[in-house]
Here is the input.
Amino acid sequence: MNKLILALSCSAALMVSASAFASGDTARGAELAKKYNCASCHGADYKSPIDPSYPKLAGQHADYLVHALTAYQRGDKVMNGRNNPIMAGMAQPLSDRDKADIAAYLQSLPGPLVVRK
Here is the structure.
């Protein structure tokens, strides 16, 4: 019984630490967004893009943003890839941690996105 409780406790601790890493570091994400100059296209507030066809990033779900950045890295030659030469070039050097941190930062910003029930 004690081994079962220990195993469950260890599993719970691993899940909590994994979710903490998956959530990303918003401060580091802000630095990366500045480094890669995301605001030049998506707007200084990340919700006023310079072109209406560019997405509003502020308040967007972090898991979606990570998925989108990964798809830009893959390009259109694979399933679930995206073809955009500008974003492909921006996303290519990002690590998984970079993507998680940028996504966490952008999700933390107030945005115009509305969830309907």
Q: What stands out?
A: The chain is about 60% helix and 0% strand. The two ends are 44 Å apart (CA to CA). Residues 75 and 92 are 10 Å apart (CA to CA).
